[in-house]
Amino acid sequence: MENELFQKIPSLQVIICRQCKHGVRPAEVERHLKRKHQFKHQSAHQLAQAVQQWEDIEQDSAAIQIPPVVDNPLPILPCEPSGLLCQRHDPLCHYVASNMGTMRNHWRQVHQWSQQTRRGRVGQRECTQGAAELRRSFTTVAWQQIFPSGPGSHYIHIRFPEGHPPPPPPPPPADQAQRAVDAIITAWDQARTAQEQQAVIQADWITDANPWLRRTGWARYLEGVHPQDLLRLVEAPPEEPPDPIEQAIQAIWNAMGQLAWRSQQTVQRCGTGICMEAARTEAGQTPYRPLQAYMDETSVQKHVQAWQQVLGFIARTQATQAGQGMQEWCGPLPVYGMTARQQRKWQILWQLAMPTMARPQQAPHRARARAVHMFPGAGRILEQGGNPGSYRATEGRGVSPGDQPTAGHGVSPEHVEEAEETGNAGSTEPAWMMSPMERACLEFCIELLNQRHRAHEYESPLVCAMAVLGWGETGWRDPDSYPPPFYRG
Question: Would you say the pTM of this structure is higher than 0.70?
Answer without folding.
Answer: no
